[in-house]
Structures are given as structure tokens and as C-alpha cells.
């Protein structure tokens, strides 16, 4: 994902286009996600937000991230370590649904998007699987 700077991109307008109200916390969270460019956990976002201007309420941060996911501003990735991470969609790449693989380093715990690689699409033969087969 292209790293964006808030000066080049109007975050409040972007949120408005997505039907999300721009609050100081939401703007700060978006700036953090844009600056990093890679998926971040709730804890990582919380710590960076606290450094940038005061610790947010953890529940409010969870709700903010859920609102971003519902509005398709971010996508969520559940790592093999059981941690849910959030990554902002590239607003300059229409339809960026997070439909790409992610790499999780088992040594340092860092996750990166491999956004230049598409996930494979698997076609299931019609009629092969159904509710009648108890699945």
C-alpha cells in the first residue's frame, strides 16, 4: 500500500464519503494506519495513539475499528498467533477488499500485506456440496 500523508489526503472527507463521522480519535487512528501501511493489532494502535495525543478508551478504540471494518475502510486479519490486526484499504485502489495474502513473522510478530499478490480463487463444483450433504 502506498504510504499516505494526511496533508495529501483529506481524512475527514474520506470518512464522510464512507458514512463515518470524523472524530479526533477516528482521524488519529486513520493517520496511524496510513503511516504504518501494514496491519496493526488493537494494542499497537492503542500504544501509537497514546504516544500521538493521549490514550483513548480501549472500548472506544474497539468500536472505532469495528466501524471502520463495517464501512470497508479497513480489513481485519486474524493471524496464526490468534491476534486480530487491522489494515487500511488503499483509497487510491478502487475495490481494495483486503483480498491479498499476509505474511506474519513468527520471530518478531510483525505482519505485512502482500497486496501485489491476489489470493487464489477456488471454484467448487456445483452440486458437490449442499445442505443435503450435512455441511
Detailed description of the structure:
Strands 1-3-2 form a 3-stranded antiparallel β-sheet. It has a two-stranded antiparallel ribbon with strand order 4-5. The protein is of the alpha+beta class and 135 residues long. Helix 2 (24-36) packs across helix 3. It is built from 4 helices and 5 strands.
Q: Which short descriptors sum up this protein?
A:
135 residues, 3-stranded antiparallel β-sheet, 5 strands, 33% helix, globular, disordered N terminus
Topology record:
Blueprint: H1 11-17, H2 24-36, E1 40-41, H3 42-53, H4 58-70, E2 74-78, E3 84-88, E4 102-104, E5 111-113
Antiparallel strand pairs: 1-3, 2-3, 4-5
Question: What's a concise summary of this model?
Answer:
The chain is α+β, with helices and mostly antiparallel strands. 33% of the residues lie in helices and 13% in strands.
Amino acid at each position: 500500500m502506498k504510504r499516505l500523508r494526511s496533508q495529501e489526503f483529506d481524512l475527514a472527507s474520506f470518512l464522510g464519503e464512507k458514512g463515518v463521522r470524523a472524530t479526533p480519535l477516528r482521524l488519529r487512528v486513520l493517520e496511524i494506519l496510513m503511516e504504518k501501511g501494514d496491519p496493526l493489532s488493537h494494542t499497537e494502535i492503542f500504544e501509537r495513539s497514546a504516544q500521538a495525543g493521549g490514550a483513548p478508551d480501549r472500548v472506544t478504540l474497539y468500536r472505532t475499528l469495528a466501524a471502520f471494518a463495517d464501512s470497508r475502510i479497513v480489513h481485519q486479519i486474524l493471524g496464526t498467533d490468534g491476534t486480530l490486526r487491522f489494515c487500511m484499504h488503499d483509497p487510491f485502489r478502487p475495490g481494495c477488499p483486503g483480498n491479498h495474502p499476509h505474511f506474519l513473522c513468527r520471530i518478531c510478530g510483525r505482519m505485512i500485506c502482500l497486496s501485489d499478490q491476489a489470493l487464489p480463487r477456488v471454484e467448487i463444483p456445483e452440486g458437490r456440496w449442499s445442505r443435503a450433504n450435512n455441511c
